[in-house]
Amino acid sequence: MLWFILSLLTAFFESMKVIASKRSLKLSGIDEYVVAWSLRIFALPFLLPLLLFVDMPAIGNAFLIALSAGGLLNVAATILYMRAIKLSDISVAYPMITFTPLFMLITSPLILSEFPSISGIIGILLIVFGSYVLNMGERGNGVLSPFRSLLKEKGPRLMLLVAFIWSITANIDKVGVLNSNPLFWIISVNLFVSSVMFPIAYLKIGRDAARIPRNVKALIPIGLFSALLLIFQMTAITMTLAAYVISVKRTSAIISVILGAVVFKERNLRGRLAGAVMMVLGVLFITLL
Fold first, then answer.
1. For residues 187 and 183, what is the distance between their CA atoms, to the nearest angstrom?
2. Where do the domains of the chain lie?
3. DSSP characters for 189-251?
């Protein structure tokens, strides 16, 4: 199953992207809005040369609508994503992204008329219980305290919102790819998002714009990993249901929890990893069974 291999590669580079982003935010002191913009703009040097090796696609009628809707939603999601990993440990905030396929149980039928199986109910229960285990460290304050902690801590809350937005954009991506081709769609979205985010990033960084050239070595890997994951993801969704690809991609939660402990010395790895694994199992139940 080529789509499965491509989806696993997407998961790996998604994890590398979040680690590179967190590292940039911690070491360089660059504003999260600038890092969010860099994620898009620094992907383009790796993507644009590939246009020399593919034919110009026939543009479908739904392309511009998909680009406008998907682009604007990705602007919001990219900023919230960076804000979330800045405010909280990766091992706490990032696993919330596994709720994307859960939300896609609603968005995929509405946008693509793709209907997952009834086994999704089991997946939902696993995801909810996984989120409980993820925050088990707070249990001393009551059985429901992990859920209260999830709502009180801003990072996981923002990432949950990102998961919802991406449950919409994942479907829009498929519309865009089907009305062009994977590479042309990726480049178009990144150009759109970069253009919209530039004035936002410029206003945020103001007189400190000189920090970008000084920290370009920290920002380039973010763009590289973003470019690679997008290429693999957009190719995979042409081969199977969008929800299947996103479910496998969300195994990045496990990789990110491990890397968060190794790179940033985040604590309570055992409990957080158990919760992340359970949430990913729920995702797989929703989409692969």
1. 6
2. 2-51+59-288
3. HHHHHHHHHHHHHHHHHGGGGGHHHHTHHHHHHHHHHHHHHHHHHHHHTTTS-HHHHHHHHTT
**Who has greater pLDDT, 129 or 12?**
12
Asked if 264 contacts 89 with a C-beta cutoff of 8 angstroms, the reply is: yes
Q: Cα–Cα distance between 94 and 78 in angstroms, integer?
A: 13
- Measure Cα distances from 183 to 48, 75, 186, 187 in Å: 9, 19, 5, 6
Reported as half-sphere exposure (CB side, CA atoms, 13 A), residue 236 has a value of: 26
Would you state the structure tokens that stand for residue 227, as one six-digit string? 């470019």
Identity (one letter) of the amino acid at 123?
Answer: G
- Do the beta carbons of residue 85 and residue 20 sit within 8 Å? no
- Are 241 and 257 a contacting pair, CB within 8 Å? no
Query: How does pLDDT run across 9-36, given as a tens digit for each residue?
Result: 998 998 888 888 877 777 656 677 877 8
Locate 82 and state its tokens. Answer: 């960076």
Q: Are 20 and 225 in contact (CB under 8 A)?
A: yes
Residue 36, CA distances (Å) to 65, 219, 222, 223, 279 in order: 23, 10, 9, 10, 26
Classify 268 as helix, strand or coil.
coil
- pLDDT at position 3 is 86
In angstroms, the CA 30 to CA 79 distance is 13
Dihedral of the CA atoms 215, 216, 219, 224 (nearest 10)?
Answer: -160
Give the total residue count for the chain: 289
Spatial CA neighbour of 166 closest among 19, 271, 268, 14: 14
